[in-house]
Amino acid sequence: MNNTLATLTSLLLLSGFSLAQQPQRYLAPVTAGPMASNPIIHVDAWTASKVQHAYGLPETKPKAKGAIVIDNAGLTFNGNASRYTIPWADTVAVGNGVERVELWGTTGRIVRMVIPNGGGLAAAGVMHHKVHELTVEFRDRRGAYHGAVFFLPGDEATRVLDIYTHAVQPTQQQADLGIKPTGPALTCQASSGMHDVLVTAPSWTEAQIPAAYRAMVYEHIIDRMQHVEGVGHVFRDGETGAQPVCPQYTVEISIVSFKPGNQVQRAMTGPVGFFAGTTQMVFNTTILDASGKLNSTQQVKATVRGEGESKNITDGVAKKIAKSYANTTKQFEKTTLTARANSPLPH
């Protein structure tokens, strides 16, 4: 055990790790429609192997492993059980970033617990590794907004961003920053007791937040809303179809504050990590109904403490927003039914 501790301590000193989250790059969104004058994109075909899909890509399971292929058509993720292509014309934005996360998961935490004399804290420094993130925001064929996050080795995420910067983005027209919300335009009626809901793309203008967190917050909200009792179809921002988009409810979200925190710091400081390096997110959530009678705004907070992966906060936020939606709409519908029952009948 003493030899193990000495080895880990030496690695810690040699690693020169930084507790601070590394800077990230992010390209401003561009129009999601067809490229200007339908230009031809020339990209040298290139493949990034050993890629892991973190979350958000349609028809692809989280943590699926595979490869990313870059060519004239766009970006394609080839997994063991799925294949999905994001055309350059449908790409909204591309971002990258670097963050340290737990290397051996639960196993690493157990190993640290059995090392005596505080050796587990030293071990924490070398039981983490850098994750290079690639975030691709895009719209599908129905115009619906998506955000997909991938983990790539080395500087391959930066290479994808550079390809997009030099070969693709100059051919597209610049648009205003952010995704503009699309609200319901028609008065909607519930059918079969199920309600459709539109989740607009969150507003990020009040706080700086990494692209990966932005994408994963939205994707987790969509997923959580689909499991709320009484919800029929969950419309994404910009989604259209054969019939006009007519959700009974709309959920609008805006970021109030974001504190990135640091998983390495939380792991290294032991019990103190419950308070140090905390990751925090605060949102304002507004729930509207198509009639205009419901307009409820609530603040939603989420926190990751201890040794949990920092990005777990994105699902924590989504879970609370879905719960807030369920409680708010349930109370609104109950109040509406009571009001109708107590209203005098027309003569």
Give a verbal description of the structure.
The chain has 347 residues and is an alpha+beta fold. It has two domains: 15-177, PH-domain like, CATH 2.30.29; 179-341, Rossmann fold, CATH 3.40.50. It is built from seven helices and 13 strands. It has helices spanning 2-15, 105-114, 119-126, 156-168, 211-225, 263-268, 312-342, and strands at 25-26, 46-55, 65-71, 74-79, 83-87, 91-102, 128-139, 145-152, 195-199, 231-236, 249-259, 279-289, 295-304. The strands form two sheets. An eight-stranded antiparallel beta sheet has the order 1-6-7-8-2-3-4-5. It is elongated and about 70 Å long.
Tell me the β content. 25-35%
**CATH topology (fold) name of the largest domain:** PH-domain like
Q: Give start-end ranges of low-pLDDT stretches.
A: 4-38, 100-128, 173-185, 264-275
Largest sheet: 8 strands, antiparallel
Task: Compute the separation of the termini in Å.
Answer: 88 Å
The secondary-structure element order is: HEEEEEEHHEEHEHEEHEEH
As an assembly, this protein is single chain
- According to DSSP, the number of beta strands is 13
On the 0 to 100 scale, the average pLDDT is: 73
- Count of the domains: 2
Radius of gyration: 23 Å
User: Helicity level, as a percent range?
Assistant: 25-40%
By DSSP (H or I, 4+ residues per run), the number of helices equals: 7
Q: Give the CATH level 1 class of the largest domain.
A: Mainly Beta
CATH architecture of the largest domain: Roll
Please state how the strands of the largest beta sheet are arranged side by side: 1-6-7-8-2-3-4-5
Could you say which structural class the secondary elements and strand pairing correspond to?
A: alpha+beta
Q: How does the overall form come out from the CA principal axes?
A: elongated
